[in-house]
Amino acid sequence: MLAPFRNFGDLRQWRRVQHIARKARIQMTSTRIVRQRDVPGLLGISRSTLANWLNQHSPYYKDEFPAKVYLSVRSIGFRSCDLEAWIARNMEGHKSTR
């Protein structure tokens, strides 16, 4: 279902977000490395929020967040199984009361 878009730029951005979401779901089906650029789309957060969670000097630092996997000097990823476990732990306190 397409939402009303103001211009073609909005439509392209929406399609890009959908593509990233599909790609992230495919990567979560088995133990793989999820690139850092894909994690915000997977968790529904912004890049700056993820950066704050990973920065030890930030007041928003989360020490329980899964450990980074360095793929190269400038490339970081996370194990999908670690992310799934972290999501499951955090969802326990947010169960719906419906």
Task: Walk me through what this model shows.
The protein starts with 7 loop residues before the first helix and ends in a 7-residue tail after the last helix. The protein has a three-stranded antiparallel sheet. The chain is α+β, with helices and mostly antiparallel strands. The model has no long low-confidence stretch (mean pLDDT 79). Helices cover 46% and strands 12% of the residues. It contains four helices and three strands, in the order αβααββα. The longest helix has 20 residues, at 8-27. The relative contact order is 0.13.
Task: Give a quick set of tags describing it.
alpha+beta
Question: How do the helices and strands line up, and which of them pair or pack?
Answer:
Layout: H1 8-27, E1 33-35, H2 39-43, H3 47-54, E2 69-72, E3 75-79, H4 80-91
Antiparallel strand pairs: 1-3, 2-3
The beta-strand count equals 3
**How much helix is in the residues?**
40-55%
Structural class category = alpha+beta
Please summarize the sheet with the most strands: 3 strands, antiparallel
Q: What is the count of DSSP helices, taking H or I runs of 4+ residues?
A: 4
| Mean pLDDT across every amino acid position | 79
- Broad shape: globular
The low-confidence runs, each spanning 5 or more residues with pLDDT under 50, are none
Rg to the nearest angstrom?
A: 16 Å
As a percent range, the share of strand residues is: 5-15%
Give the strand line-up of the largest sheet.
Answer: 1-3-2
Which H/E pattern describes the elements? HEHHEEH
In oligomeric terms, what are we looking at?
A: single chain
Quote the distance from N terminus to C terminus: 26 Å
